[in-house]
User: Fold this.
Amino acid sequence: MKNVLIINGHQKYDQIAEGKLTKLFIDTANDFFVENEFNVKHSVVESAYDVSDELEKLAWADYILFQYPVYWMGVPWLTKKYIDEVFSAGVNTVTYVSDGRSREDASKKYGSGGLMQGKKYMLSLTYNCPDTEFDNKDGFFDGLSLDEANVATHKLFKFCGAEALETYAIHDIFKSELDIDAELIHFKNTLQRNFITNQ
Assistant:
């Protein structure tokens, strides 16, 4: 059986971001993984987590599903705090050894010192902006793709040696005509491709 860690990167703001949508996607993913005989563990950044426990979960995981809302073009600040505390504490044991460079070997490049080789991760994002803002030279993100607009999170995992799976994102979440049932089908299809079909 494969092991998957689901990280809940939500940070609550009353009347703006209560966390219900994040919970819906996490519950859906949990059910998907259980039905497909994965071992599942959970982490919650908005909790009194223990850094050593989080590192044990990262070491245990074959896969990481990172679910979070995009706030101000990045991760919520409590999620960044979790990343800084946990991934930094994993030096020499779980996440990385060094930045990869070596005075003795000039061929070793920056970002090649990760310890998470063989692990794969998936970003699952909730956005207020429409999907038309991506891959659009006249859009807000100046032609960037969804993944390019989230390069900092991708580079975090790349620095640690983990491999990216297909990203999922739900857009325009405050629109009254949002078809959540259709979005959940899209989400489950992405999980199927990432964790079952293409493995």
User: Anything to note?
Assistant: The mean pLDDT is 92. The longest strand covers residues 63-69. Strands lie at 3-8, 39-44, 63-69, 120-126, 163-164, 168-170. The chain has one domain: 3-197.
